[in-house]
Please model this.
Amino acid sequence: MSLREFLRPVRIVLVDTALPENIGAAARAMKTMGLSDLALVRPKLFPDQRANALAAGADDVLEQARIADSLADAIGDCVHAVGCTARLRDISLPMFEPAAAAQELVAQTRRGPVALVFGAERTGLTNEDLSRCDAAVHIPTEADFSSLNLAQAVQVLAYCVRGAAMAAQSLPAVPAEQRDDPPATIEQLERMFGHFEEALTDIDFFKGRPYGHLMQRLRRMLHRADLDSREVMILRGILAEAQRMARLAQGAVNK
Ligand code: SAH
Model:
């Protein structure tokens, strides 16, 4: 596969970006590394001349950028997503350093589109946004000064992705793992997590207790399982059957 083929499926997603300058500088960072798929979730100001000024010739990346209302929309079709975070604490996802995250991302491009997700300048990614991702990546920094400028964080990761793509390209082409069914997309996984929550409520698994933590664990476990779309259907079939039995049992009790 050519370098371009490894890089084409890699999407950069910027969530709630406040400054158009950062969008422009991120586009420039992407273009220098051969990336072109930019998605903007609720950008505060876009399009904007200041973005074009900082893009310094990467206007094509800005022109092709897609705008989304939610992170779910921006990465729904992806088979792998990595959230970029300046924070190290309270992250309930497997955490990687940039080179390792980039290597996995490039490996996953064989299966479909993949995403690197960046948060807003002031607040970063919410825990909810992060929970939609398969993994988190942190650029190692000084412990008490860990927050890079958004576009500079994009540059560092785009550089690592290019490095990983160059390494993958120079390896003999390994045939992609033979699986009969297409990989599950983030959207299919999200629907499945919703179904889990509903079915576990129906069978009274939570017993009225708060279940946020348990759902996090379940998400982490099932992201790790690398499910394909048929496996998602099998799990959802089991959930539907459990719900049916719960309804029957409920009916019997009510009689
Ligand atoms: N104060 C915010 C920092 C936001 S910086 C926070 O606590 O998260 C804007 C974005 O740049 C972050 O959401 C992240 O996607 C990226 N970023 C900044 N520094 C980073 C780092 N050290 N490692 C990985 N991503 C980083």
